[in-house]
Amino acid sequence: MKFSKLVFPGIAMIATTYGLGRFSFGLFLPEVTNDLHLTASQSGVISSLFYLAYCFTIIYSTLQTDKIGPKRMIMLAGFSVLIGLVGIGFSPNAIILSIGVIFAGASTGLISPPYGYTISLWIKVHEQGKANTWINSGTSIGLMFTGITAMFAFIDWRQTYFVYAILALAVLIWNYLIIPSLKEDINIHTGSFNIRDISASTRIVITSTLLGISTATFWTFSKSFVQNTGNYSDFALSIFWILIGLFGMIGGISGAIIDKRGLHYAFNLGVIALAIATIALAFTPNIWLIPFVSASLFGMSYIFLTGVLLVWGIKIFVKNASLGIGIPFLMLAVGQVIGASLAGLLIDAFNFMYTFIIYGVIGFIPLFIYPKVKLEENQLPKGDYSQLQHQNPEIINHEHVEDSETHHTDHQYY
């Protein structure tokens, strides 16, 4: 299949689910909180539902995509974010808002595995890395788009979510028309794992959870904190959010840094930058420029570090890259559930400044749990595509390719 024909709708779907459906909530949270009369604790719990829903659906989609087919799973993700956006925009109270949040959050877990699967089936091997990189950029593009729409003072947050819902419907139709359907069920061997793999994953599980906790307060309450200072216009607040997405696109250089300086160096670099971004925001009331520097550093380091976790996970689960991707991203979401819930309580008990300092300090802890990966000569299992291609001739016949020196494999990280 032509590269752009598949990648562009993929970018749009990732931008819709992650950008519009999931991360936009932090941008509109101050207005939502005021209109629905929510406390910071309630806002934190509701925000944590995004990540909680993701935890369940990423497991479901990982296990079921090969059974129902990637197109059906992508359609399910599209319907989920559509329902979520409408629910959030319509919500008259915290209960309906929570239901909308659950559907919007669920879409992000549903969309990641099937799009990675789709790329592996219909995009040529030498173009898969580029395809995954472009589709991954959808999150940053979605964030920038939400920041731009927030500049439109003539529409409120409810109307904005309804506009997002219309866009989500258009993207859903686009993907339905473009994504090929498989004539037969998929039955591709994706590898296995053993007790040694599970034992080796302890560090990445703890690290991912801690990083999830430390970043949750920024995703959920950063705009509320900056807005509450009273020193920034609506235009400035939108720029703050746009910078997270804009610099997030730069964070895709993590692969190059790992190749040049190693996994441990890249990991330390990302952890330090991410923690500094969170702590720096605590000084927002005193220095006018700080929020914009902090947003830029956070966006870049967050995407950078998720790329590091991806490579680290694949190196651990060398025989099952799906687990290498799924486990750190699942635990990152688990940490964000915990972090978002506790952040609201801390803000109510203390204030924004102390809460961001506490979470920034937590962000440094992973430095003491650095990646220890023993590289092996075992290659990833080869997928048996012959029968599948015979049934579906349009599928690109290829095998998993691994660099014998770096053990780097192209996979998605959304």
From TrEMBL:
Key word Methyltransferase present: no
Pfam families per record: MFS_1
Chief localization: membrane
Cellular location(s): Cell membrane
Lipid bilayer topology: Multi-pass membrane protein
PANTHER family on file: CHLORAMPHENICOL EFFLUX PUMP RV0191, PURINE EFFLUX PUMP PBUE
Ranges of residues in domain Major facilitator superfamily (MFS) profile: 5-378
Entry keywords, A to Z: Cell membrane, Membrane, Transmembrane, Transmembrane helix, Transport
Organism (species): Staphylococcus nepalensis
Protein name (database record): MFS transporter
Domain of life: Bacteria
TM region(s), chain numbering: 7-29, 41-61, 73-90, 96-122, 134-155, 161-179, 200-219, 239-258, 265-283, 289-311, 323-346, 352-370
